[in-house]
TrEMBL record, chain A:
The chain crosses the membrane at residues 6-27, 34-54, 60-82, 94-116, 136-160, 190-210, 222-248, 255-276. Its main location: membrane. The keyword Transmembrane applies. InterPro entries: ABC_transp_permease (IPR001851), BCAA_transport_permease (IPR052157). Belongs to the binding-protein-dependent transport system permease family. LivHM subfamily. The lineage of its organism: Bacteria, Bacillati, Actinomycetota, Actinomycetes, Propionibacteriales. PANTHER family: ABC TRANSPORTER PERMEASE PROTEIN (PTHR11795:SF451), BRANCHED-CHAIN AMINO ACID TRANSPORT SYSTEM PERMEASE PROTEIN LIVH (PTHR11795). Signal peptide: none annotated. It is found in: Cell membrane. Pfam families: BPD_transp_2 (PF02653). Keywords: Amino-acid transport, Cell membrane, Membrane, Transmembrane, Transmembrane helix, Transport. This is Branched-chain amino acid ABC transporter permease. It is a multi-pass membrane protein.
From TrEMBL, chain B:
GO terms for molecular function: ATP binding. It comes from the Bacteria. This is ABC transporter ATP-binding protein. Keywords: Amino-acid transport, ATP-binding, Nucleotide-binding, Transport. Residues 2-234 form the ABC transporter domain. PANTHER family: HIGH-AFFINITY BRANCHED-CHAIN AMINO ACID TRANSPORT ATP-BINDING PROTEIN LIVF (PTHR43820). Belongs to the ABC transporter superfamily. The keyword Transport applies. The keyword Protein biosynthesis does not apply. It comes from Nocardioides kribbensis. SUPFAM superfamilies: P-loop containing nucleoside triphosphate hydrolases (SSF52540).
Length: 292, 234
């Protein structure tokens, strides 16, 4: 019973991070039909920026804020400089560009930040809380992780639902030409979408790094899980991304705890294949309503 | 109000509009008629900046529109309701309307929404429903209402009768007539359904293969048997 609870709690924390990462992919995909493969190295770079500041003596929170801000800027720059010039071309061109960016950022990070493993601090305890004399798998940092992702998601929901800018962004995502005719500056909305996505990706990056080791490739496995989570949710639905992330996190935690940790990556692919076979549009598919 | 002068547009080697000139006068409904492929939709797309003209000029209230981007048009008092309705089905009815109101560059007031709900009671009853739940006629009402939210002086309408029952078409055309009379709205109405369009329009322009073949009062066009048989199909 206790192991069951601990496995679920561990999965929940991890699932929140996958959810954030999946959300970053979905935010870009649903407005541009581009899967941003560079999301992981972008988050890695912003996490290294935070680490550089923290190692220079600034507090964790300065580093945290800097990482999110750097994500915002990096996302906007990537959209303007890299994606905008191929906007009118088939989506595959942009996807290949993000793959190129993946490689470039990896190499650059190794040159600038070094290729060694470096430890990343956590602002809260990374030991489990004690409940009734036994330790449970929920840590102070875990609570912070869950809280941070929930807060950011709530802010995003509020932005999309209740603000004019959010309405414009949704219109631009669903129908660019109609949005343009209604006076929406679609280009600006796409830039903002990439910026917000990269911010959420950066959040995932710094949360995974907390209390652990980072190196230029530390996010690469997360991109696989984040992508699986996004596909579970149908690649278009932000809610789907969150549910997909949590489902995947908890499932993988059970695989790791009860079957064997070496099977986690395999299990992720198994889940992906299962979902794609049974519900090709993802758990939240609305395929019937979608124009093609 | 809106004056086109020797406007030409092409898709690659295909010439869609050739030297098109006419004026849509203020406070009137001007119908642009012609068969499929005559260049009617291209004409609207060029006017609203979605399509680039090869040559010629477009003037709205004396102002040259040449290089003005489509997303600036609502600010200049022009609204374009595209063919195939252009409802954003993933948004609610009210969100669609609010979006239209944002085009004018200031906050959407409840009074603006109420005005549209007064015109189209059915939209007011279902304001929180997703737009994809609406029927074809209701969608047409929604896009017209959405265009009105920006307070346009010039309304471009592309085939509003497409796929709608004659009764609904009559209802929508009556409403347009009313808006022209009450608000002094000017309308450029593209239609394949020439008979209905001429019954509501003040003026008509007939396109054939991208060229203007007739430009006259609606009543005169409707009375011209030869023209009707040759180009208008009724």
């Amino acid at each position: 019973m206790q192991q069951l609870l601990n496995t679920a709690l561990g999965g929940l924390t991890l699932g929140m991070v996958y959810a954030a990462f999946a959300l970053a992919l979905v935010l870009i995909f649903r407005s541009t039909r581009i899967v941003n493969f560079a999301q992981a190295p972008m988050a890695m770079v912003t996490t290294f920026i935070a680490l550089t500041l923290i190692d220079a003596g600034y507090s964790y929170w300065i580093g945290f804020a800097a990482a999110l801000l750097a994500g915002l800027v990096l996302g906007a720059v990537v959209e303007r400089v890299l994606i905008r010039p191929v906007e009118d071309k088939p989506e595959i061109n942009a996807v290949i560009l993000t793959l190129g960016l993946f490689i470039v950022l990896h190499a650059l990070a190794a040159v600038v930040f070094g290729n060694a493993y470096r430890s990343f601090p956590a602002p809260f305890g990374i030991r489990g809380f004690e409940v009734g004399g036994s330790t449970i798998a929920l840590t102070g940092f875990g609570v912070f992780t869950i809280g941070a992702v929930v807060v950011v998601m709530a802010l995003l929901v509020a932005l999309f639902r209740f603000t004019d800018v959010g309405l414009r962004m949704r219109a631009a995502a669903y129908n660019q030409e109609v949005a343009r005719l209604l006076g929406v500056r679609v280009g600006r909305m796409l830039t903002l979408g990439w910026a917000l996505a990269a911010l959420v990706g950066s959040l995932a990056g710094i949360l995974i790094a907390g209390g652990s080791l980072v190196h230029p490739g530390y996010m690469d496995s997360v991109v696989v899980y984040g992508f699986v989570a996004a596909v579970l949710g149908g690649l278009e639905s932000p809610i789907g991304a969150v549910v997909g992330g949590l489902t995947l996190g908890v499932s993988l935690s059970f695989v790791s705890g009860y079957v064997g940790s070496e099977l986690v990556a395999l299990a992720a692919l198994g889940i992906l294949m299962l979902v794609l076979t049974l519900r090709p549009g993802g758990l939240f598919s609305q395929a019937a309503e979608r124009r093609v | 109000m809106l004056t086109l002068h020797e406007l030409s547009t092409s898709y690659g080697p295909v010439k869609a509009l050739q030297q098109v000139s006419f004026t849509a006068r203020e406070g009137e409904i001007t119908a642009v008629l012609g068969a499929n492929g005559a260049g009617k939709t291209t004409l609207l797309r060029t006017v609203s900046g979605l399509q680039r003209a090869d040559s010629g000029t477009i003037e709205l209230e004396g102002r040259r529109l040449g290089k003005v981007a489509a997303d600036r048009m609502p600010g200049l008092g022009m609204a374009h309701v595209p063919e195939g309705r252009g409802v954003i089905t993933e948004l609610t009815i009210e969100e669609n309307l609010r979006l239209g109101g944002l085009g004018r560059g200031r906050r959407v007031q409840p009074a603006d929404l109420d005005r549209v709900y007064d015109l189209f009671a059915i939209l007011g009853d279902r304001r929180a429903a997703l737009a994809h739940t609406l029927s074809g006629g209701e969608r047409q009402m929604l896009v017209i209402g959405r265009a009105l939210m920006a307070g346009p002086r010039m309304l471009l309408l592309d085939e509003p009768s497409l796929g709608l029952a004659p009764r609904i078409v009559a209802q929508i055309f009556d409403l347009l007539r009313g808006l022209v009379q009450s608000d002094g709205l000017s309308v450029l109405l593209v239609e394949q359904n020439a008979r209905s369009a001429l019954s509501v329009a003040d003026h008509g322009v007939v396109l054939n293969l991208g060229r203007v073949v007739a430009d006259d009062d609606a009543a005169t066009l409707a009375a011209d048997d030869q023209l009707r048989h040759a180009y208008l199909g009724f």
